[in-house]
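Homework-ish question, so no full write-ups if that breaks the rules, but can someone show me the predicted structure for this set?
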Amino acid sequence: MANITNTPESAGSNLMARALREAFYAGLVALGLFVLFVGLKTDQNILNELVLVQRWGLLAVFVAIAAVGRFLSVAFIRPYLAERKASKASAGVKEPGFVTRNFSMIAVAILLVYPPIMVAIFGFQGSLKWVDNFGIQILIYVMLAWGLNIVVGLAGLLDLGYVAFYAVGAYSYALLSSYFGLSFWVLLPMAGIFAALWGMILGFPVLRLKGDYLAIVTLAFGEIIRLVLINWTAVTKGTFGISGIAKASVFGIWSFDVSSPNNFAKVFGLPMSSAYYKIFLFYLILALCLLTAFVTIRLRRMPIGRAWEALREDEIACRSLGINTVTTKLTAFATGAMFGGFAGSFFAVRQGFVSPESFVFLESAIILAIVVLGGMGSLIGIAVAATLMIGGTELLREMEFLKHIFGPDFTPELYRMLIFGLAMIIVMVWKPRGFVGSREPTAFLRERKSVSGSFTKEGHG
Amino acid sequence: MAGTNTMTKDPILKVDHLSMRFGGLMAINDLSFEAYRGDITALIGPNGAGKTTVFNCITGFYKPTMGMITMRQKAGKEYLLERMSDFEVNRDAKVARTFQNIRLFSGLTVLENLLVAQHNKLMLASGYTVLGLLGFPAYKRAAAQSIEQAKYWLEKANLIDRADDPAGDLPYGAQRRLEIARAMCTGPEFLCLDEPAAGLNPRESLALNELLRSIRKDTGTSILLIEHDMSVVMEISDHVVVLEYGQKISDGNPDHVKNDPKVIAAYLGVEDDEVEEVIEQIEVIAVTAPGDTPK
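A: Not a homework solution, just the prediction itself:
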């Protein structure tokens, strides 16, 4: 280290020497840490005696991982990151590519051709899994997260009980269709209106609350709805749930009931398959999602949408400008809840069965996590987050090959939540503002510049 | 800069026997004053005199313990501000305000800040969102017009070049000007400014004076301002009200207030029984150096 005028080569060999040294130390530390934990294990033998099992091989693996990891980190990863940082700083802002600019258009186009492609690859029966478990499941969460985004992302009101509106929508459809035999197309808007009404009912008592206090009350609200659904057995059949919910029809023209004369497959003379219904449901939820996105984008450019965002930034300033914050908050709750209600009635129609089990707090937490991970207020970010989170956890069910590695007892789906949590921590450390942290302005004079996430606030109630 | 319309004084805001109590503290005690139409009225006083409390009572953020605040609009309509909630004071009574610690929507762009201020007008034009959502042309016209309005104020506040930048990115002085422009976008008849010159350098202070004068001249808006910067107060105000310990100690044109011994005592801090002494001193100073203001 005495030589100040380092040539690149000597710097390189210096680096290697340093990396080796640090790897050695890391190995030493790991050895010290693990020698008693891992190297030795107390066990009972068949005579009930305590014996010491020696596991030097395993200990060696631990030490080797620590040493090699340290070596790689010091010798390769850190210089690479530093170099990338330097090149990024010098290169400045690069022009966004074609894919980045037209991301949403491309995504919609892919979604439109998704079911036919899946059918072409896997056949009708094989496509079921991909259209239903992946496509529909993800799109339901996209819609829920976009609905919650209005409340949390735009208006900045932290809502931990969003699943309540999902439940209201689902049960509105389930109950009204089984008791009164109303069709899906009548009940879809009604479910939205009911949910919006409940959004207002939630909104009134929490108007004065902010931040954590608001979150707690919304959490309680979500639980109240679920408990009512469980205990009001006369109407909701409690935990038993409501089954045999009527299927949706194609605007009343074609039905998907096997027995009905205008069955879709019969009319077109196709072989019987449940895949048609799933594909129809896929396009239905896609349309609902696009409606949500369209309304959200439109609303952001309306005075009410701007008032929501202003409310998130500074409520007192809003009031000083003559904005009635009470109605502004209530409309945010109601609009968000309405989309939750739409998604709920769709959920009921897709499952054919609803029970309070589906509306636990964890669902609210997942939806909120998707909104936060995606970047509050950003539709594209949220859609990406929903795809990764829901698609990722579904994908874990498919990891049969992991059984060959970890043994036949290994069930990858049990690790879903662990991986979900881990992924969330990593994303939050890597991008604290979510995938899309910046905000698109709703109006501009000369050029549209997105607002960096460091200026926007999260809202305090 | 004495009031030019001394003879035909038409009060726009009348504060009568206003009192505000916080627990055991009497922040304002039986305060009465008037602000006249077309005037720039300054509210001054030492720290803790209750100036911002008066502001919060006028703009509906506090409910006064006692008293009456009457706002009389140009058309003759009267509003009792102490009975209205904060947003109604702006929406109906047309009283706008700014804040001592700037409250901008920092994550919105400068232009958006000014559009939010035109919320009620646009809300009506968009048929409470429904017609706007369906894309009715009336809303599009109103939206274009609101951008024109915002542009007008951006030019006035010298912020037109920063229109598409986030408000939080502006330097301090520009944020102060933006807050005033935003308040003006609500179309007020009476503008309340809480320490608009705080933290400004002398050049920015001068620009602020110009802005306030042009607001009064071009829109006829009356202004009430709290200020510590005497160069601003004495330069532009027509009428000064001085508070100390929640009570009015002086009221009149700047020259009158400047030489009021009670004001000087309040600012320099003398015992009550020394006031007489101070008055004598001032008279001596006034004789020896006329026009020189004791500070």
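Now go work out the reasoning yourself. Hint: Strands of chain B lie at 11-22, 25-36, 40-44, 66-72, 78-80, 95-97, 190-194, 222-226, 239-244, 247-252.
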